[in-house]
């Protein structure tokens, strides 16, 4: 299981600003190890963000996304919204974390 994500959400004037730092090595499948063998691809493939049970963001990542990706977006919302962030990687590993908009 991956390390917890850092999820921050702050409301200002009816707009919630969400910042997510995901901890993941994000291997592209193009690097080689010390013995010259290709390191297999391993990256976050899908991400879903819900606010109070409603989808506010769905995305797909590929092997070109850097290690420990950072995502920042805004949506119309309110203080107290429950934000749930989930991702699935190319090996099938999953992670879900949540925060409350302040």
UniProtKB/TrEMBL annotation:
Annotated Pfam families: SoxZ (PF08770)
> For the Sulphur oxidation protein SoxZ domain, which residue ranges apply?
6-99
Q: Which InterPro entries match?
A: Ig-like_fold, Ig_E-set, SoxZ, SoxZ_dom
Signal peptide from the UniProt entry:
none
Alphabetized Gene3D superfamilies for the sequence: Immunoglobulins (2.60.40.10)
Q: What is this protein called?
A: Thiosulfate oxidation carrier complex protein SoxZ
Naturally occurring in which organism (per UniProt): Polynucleobacter yangtzensis
| Lineage of producing organism | Bacteria, Pseudomonadati, Pseudomonadota, Betaproteobacteria, Burkholderiales
What is this protein's gene name?
soxZ
């Amino acid at each position: 299981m991956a390390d917890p994500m850092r999820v921050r959400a702050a409301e200002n004037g009816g707009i919630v600003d969400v910042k997510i730092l995901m901890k993941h090595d994000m291997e592209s499948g193009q690097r080689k190890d010390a013995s010259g063998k290709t390191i297999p691809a391993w990256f976050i493939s899908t991400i879903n963000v819900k606010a109070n049970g409603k989808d506010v963001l769905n995305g797909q990542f590929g092997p070109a996304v850097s290690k420990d990706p950072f995502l920042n977006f805004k949506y119309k919302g309110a203080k107290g919204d429950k934000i749930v962030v989930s991702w699935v990687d190319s090996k099938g590993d999953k992670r879900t974390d949540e925060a409350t908009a302040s």
